[in-house]
Amino acid sequence: MRRSTELRLPRTLDAARRARRFTTEVCAKWRVPGLAPDAIVIVTELVENTLRHTRAAPRLGLKLHRDHLKGDQLTVSVTDDDPNEAVIRESGHPPGLGLLLVAQTSEQWGCDREPAGGKTVWATVR
Question: What span is annotated as the signal peptide, if there is one (predicted)?
Fold first, then answer.
């Protein structure tokens, strides 16, 4: 079974807070509250990266894949219209630790180019 939802966020200082609240509410509604803590860390970092490094308004996506054998998997994604790929910075000095935190918190993560331009950065949690 799959479920998905999306939220367009404004380019405002409270965008990450709105994204966290939305993620918490969706995880509760979908009955996967145990996935919320890691998802919230990822959501915060990806939304803040979009606001910090692009001129785009972030679009948050949540997709739940229920698998009775492997367990529930939640994919968090943030799409923006900036074509530059998201990469972990080598320096390791703040700022620049956001994607490293995403990589450490998630099962896997990646960055996909969008056909219409821009990119989607995503991460999965179980």
Answer: none
